[in-house]
Recover the amino acids of this structure.
């Protein structure tokens, strides 16, 4: 074996190796242990499932309804069958059916004399508060709105996320003893700095909606609204109706919220118009589906050209039809088709074509550096600004993302703030905690349900459309009931129950190779990874998935397992006569600022 | 072993064969043999071979006797015909089936107990007759179902799990098959599918009696130090005479070999057996030399594997006894039972 071959051997002591196998957890910005809580749901242990989520992502009930679900496209089930496990909606199940868990939440720790200001009461700031309060920090949360929650409360329509769910999960944190300064917009960073906080966290979001610059825009301004501002006004009850014919410009999730809200406020003919193709839209596929389910057509390849108005009275909007052409470098360009422009008549236009960061309240000489796009220059992991006692997170840090990223930032920022306040090295990041434990209970008995379900993905029951469209506060999704939740949970492949190979015990009988339903195990002559991938039992073209390569066999061959489509059914371990294969549960928890402190209670 | 059935989900790239079946479609019920049993590997090899040969599962009949090996037909080709016969009597049941319906593909699965002890006589006479079939012996040298006594194929001097040496001489079934007139004789090892699968393919496309003696370690009772049928022992003493590529009549010949290194044998169905020679000048068409080669290497403690002998022009039982081409089971009553006038005529012709 040459050195080139040796370097490809798998090191199972590296937590990243098995973490990567748990596709959903690896893809989640907060690294929530998906399979672990899904098993608890199948077991009816909703409160335990909720607490796993609460520790990791802070807002299980909110995220279980609104998350962008980076876990689901990553889900292994989607590679062996049509659709991934409904991980997100199972999270909601934990929140819906849990008992009162308030006695399981940490409280405020004995004061450590440090004071931290959080600007904005959105998910990032609330996560920082959650992590720092048990450590004894005095946490002061500022927000221009009168109620905490940030964009969770102001921008997500109530028919997707009821107020009661927001109140519950936001209050879990506020009730820990956060000091709130709600209704107090921070207008000056310099003034805030003068208050001598030990650290300041900026989690004010990306509050500026991008505007449209076409002729007639200003003249007809009375009926042309910026999407996120309009959603916020709807949310707080300032706007209660809209015209019968509505055009929504933009293809993101905000556009989807705008069009669905319009349908509930009097919009009878609501059309979404996007510049590029349907497939290229930024909105999640399920949000597009939900919009179309509510009879909202999505018109693609239409570029807004000018506003048609009669002395400022909006009449409609002209669009130029375009098509995609690839240039010589293979880049997509939208070019006019040459067809006549299209007029769509309307009473209102909602502009949801993107969001921008804006920090008009941070003086440019306050010591905080910004890049040329107006974003703060901060450490990628530390989130620390050039002014060392200032930290950024959520949409304010790297531009608009989503709630789950805001939570992940919140956890990271809390670690940084804690280290900074203790005069420790902020760059020194605590490693995640993980363990790996055999799940063997008998010859063919495991502590997890290893029978693979053949069921296809279950749909979440919806409220009847006619009823749902009548009331903007009526939640559309009814959520899984416990029976559906169990059936959906059983679709989870338990990717965290890892196949661990002990070459010393292996007698190379091929039993595992023969039984594997997805042909992922091969015993073959040594080679480097690129070479091995070409001579396995089944092709292994998915380079994003690792090969588990082990030497140490008597014949000198390698055991090579392609992790790509392993079902974690444990058949290899059941068929193994010597226990060379074992199914071991990999549990990884990210380090949080309050880890290790919570148990003092 | 497991109580669960194998999950239905499969690798996304699993390919169907000419008949539209994937390899998984050739599987049977989940095995109840001990975990790691060599027999399960042989089942997997049979599945692979039948899939690769595009054999229609409903045209295959698998017959067996009694024993661990004879249980295995349940674990492969779930859509084929099966007959679990009396101990050691698979050969006569199979011969009968073949006489009645010559159109099926016959697979006899047996073990060293079933074929070398209680069924030795049946085995011997089937080899002589040229019944068109694949006879595979899953040979572990031990009575696994009765907890590990030596079988008739245990080598003299081989030790039991308790450390007692065998004092009886072993029956070499491949040597017997050669001597008794089998027209395709091979030996292989359950732990080497790259060798076993092409041998099964070649045997299934052979006309006449094809015999494979497949050493199949018993992980429960015969895989210890001192055993001559353990994984380690067989790997150390394996003397493969050739490596076989089976080229079906449809397939294109792509690989080129230097002259002399390869022997090609064309079978009656047009399939080409391409043998890459591993042991000197071994000639697979020379029965007498094969018997000598086996005896010499057995004396040296080596296990000779590979395709040992093939007669590409072999004839089968139906040719010898001049049966009609139509399977007897498809003949109607008047054809089968022509009446007393025909009987009188026949009797008269013999007077």
């Amino acid at each position: 074996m040459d050195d080139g071959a040796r370097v490809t051997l798998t090191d199972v002591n590296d937590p990243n190796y098995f973490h990567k196998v748990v596709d959903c957890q690896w893809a989640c910005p907060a690294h929530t242990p998906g399979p672990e809580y899904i098993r608890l749901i199948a077991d009816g242990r909703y409160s335990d499932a909720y607490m796993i989520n609460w520790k990791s992502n802070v807002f299980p009930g909110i995220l279980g309804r609104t998350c962008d679900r980076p876990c689901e496209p990553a889900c292994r089930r989607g590679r062996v069958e049509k659709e991934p496990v409904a991980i997100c909606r199972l999270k909601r199940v934990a929140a819906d059916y849990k008992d009162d868990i308030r006695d399981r939440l940490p409280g405020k720790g004995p004061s450590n004399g440090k004071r931290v200001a959080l600007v904005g009461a959105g998910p990032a700031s609330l996560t920082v508060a959650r992590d720092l309060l048990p450590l004894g920090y005095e946490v002061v949360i500022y927000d221009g709105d009168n109620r905490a929650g940030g964009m969770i409360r102001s921008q997500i329509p109530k028919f997707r996320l009821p107020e009661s769910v927001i109140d519950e999960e936001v209050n879990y944190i506020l009730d820990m003893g956060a000091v709130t300064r709600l209704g107090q917009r921070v207008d000056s960073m310099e003034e805030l700095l003068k208050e001598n906080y030990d650290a300041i966290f900026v989690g004010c979001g990306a509050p500026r909606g991008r505007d449209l610059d076409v002729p007639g825009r200003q003249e007809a301004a009375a009926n042309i609204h910026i999407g996120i501002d309009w959603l916020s006004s709807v949310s707080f009850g300032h706007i209660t109706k809209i015209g019968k014919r509505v055009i929504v410009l933009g293809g993101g999730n905000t556009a989807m919220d705008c069009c669905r809200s319009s349908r509930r406020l009097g919009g009878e003919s609501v059309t979404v118009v996007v510049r590029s193709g349907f497939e290229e839209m930024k909105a999640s596929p399920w949000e597009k589906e939900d919009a179309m389910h509510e009879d909202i057509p999505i018109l693609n390849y239409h570029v807004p050209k000018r506003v048609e108005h009669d002395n400022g009275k909006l009449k409609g909007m002209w669009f130029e039809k375009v098509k995609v052409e690839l240039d010589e470098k293979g880049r997509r360009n939208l070019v006019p088709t040459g067809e006549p422009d299209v007029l769509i008549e309307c009473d209102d236009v909602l502009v949801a074509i993107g969001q921008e960061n804006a920090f008009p309240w941070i003086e440019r000489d306050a010591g905080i550096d910004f890049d040329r796009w107006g974003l703060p220059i901060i450490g990628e992991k530390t989130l620390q600004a050039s002014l060392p006692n200032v930290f950024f997170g959520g949409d304010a840090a790297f531009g608009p993302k989503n709630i789950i990223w805001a939570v992940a930032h919140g956890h990271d920022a809390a670690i940084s703030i804690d280290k900074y306040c203790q005069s420790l090295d902020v760059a020194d990041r605590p490693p995640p905690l993980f363990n790996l434990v055999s799940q063997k209970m008998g010859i063919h008995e495991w502590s997890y349900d290893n029978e693979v379900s053949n069921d296809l993905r279950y749909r979440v029951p919806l409220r009847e459309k006619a009823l749902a469209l009548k009331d903007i506060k009526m939640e559309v999704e009814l959520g899984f009931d416990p029976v559906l939740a169990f059936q959906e949970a059983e679709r989870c492949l338990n990717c965290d129950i890892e196949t661990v190979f002990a070459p010393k015990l292996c007698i190379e009988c091929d039993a595992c190779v023969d039984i594997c339903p997805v042909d992922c195990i091969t015993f073959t002559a040594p080679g480097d990874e690129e070479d091995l991938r070409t001579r396995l039992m089944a092709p292994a073209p998915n380079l994003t998935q690792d090969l588990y390569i082990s030497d140490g066999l008597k014949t000198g061959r390698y055991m090579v397992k392609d992790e790509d489509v392993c079902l974690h059914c444990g058949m290899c371990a059941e068929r193994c006569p010597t226990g060379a294969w074992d199914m071991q549960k990999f549990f990884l928890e990210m380090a949080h600022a309050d880890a290790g402190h919570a148990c003092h209670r | 072993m497991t109580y669960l059935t194998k999950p239905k989900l499969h690798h996304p790239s699993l390919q169907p064969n000419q008949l539209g079946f994937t390899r998984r479609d050739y599987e049977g019920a989940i095995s109840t043999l001990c975990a790691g049993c060599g027999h399960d590997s042989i089942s997997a090899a049979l599945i692979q071979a039948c899939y690769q040969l595009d054999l229609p599962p409903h045209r295959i009949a698998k017959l067996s006797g009694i024993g661990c090996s004879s249980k295995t037909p349940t674990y492969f080709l779930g859509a084929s015909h099966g007959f679990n016969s009396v101990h050691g009597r698979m050969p006569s049941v199979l011969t009968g089936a073949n006489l009645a319906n010559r159109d099926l593909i016959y697979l006899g699965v047996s073990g060293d107990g079933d074929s070398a002890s209680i069924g030795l006589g049946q085995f011997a006479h089937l080899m002589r007759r040229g019944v068109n079939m694949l006879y595979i012996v899953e040979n572990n040298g031990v009575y696994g179902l009765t907890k590990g006594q030596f079988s008739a194929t245990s080598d003299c001097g081989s030790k039991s799990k308790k450390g007692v040496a065998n004092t009886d001489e072993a029956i070499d079934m491949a040597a017997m098959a050669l001597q008794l007139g089998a027209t395709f004789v091979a030996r292989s090892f359950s732990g080497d599918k790259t060798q076993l699968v092409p041998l099964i393919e070649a045997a299934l496309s052979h006309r006449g009696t094809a015999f494979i003696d497949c050493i199949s370690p018993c992980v429960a009772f015969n895989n210890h130090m001192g055993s001559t049928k353990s994984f380690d022992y067989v790997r150390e003493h394996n003397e493969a005479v050739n490596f076989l590529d089976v080229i079906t009549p449809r397939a294109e010949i792509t690989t080129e070999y230097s002259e002399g290194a390869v022997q090609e044998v064309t079978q009656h169905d047009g399939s080409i057996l391409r043998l890459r020679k591993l042991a000197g000048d071994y000639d697979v068409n020379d029965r007498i030399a094969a018997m000598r080669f086996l005896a010499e290497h057995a004396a040296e403690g080596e296990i000779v594997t590979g395709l040992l002998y093939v007669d590409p022009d072999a004839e089968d039982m139906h040719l010898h006894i001049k049966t009609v081409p139509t399977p007897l089971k498809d003949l109607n009553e008047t054809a089968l039972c022509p009446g007393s006038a025909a009987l009188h005529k026949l009797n008269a012709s013999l007077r």
Summary: Chain A has four domains: 3-15+495-589, 24-101+450-489, 105-207+357-421, 209-353.
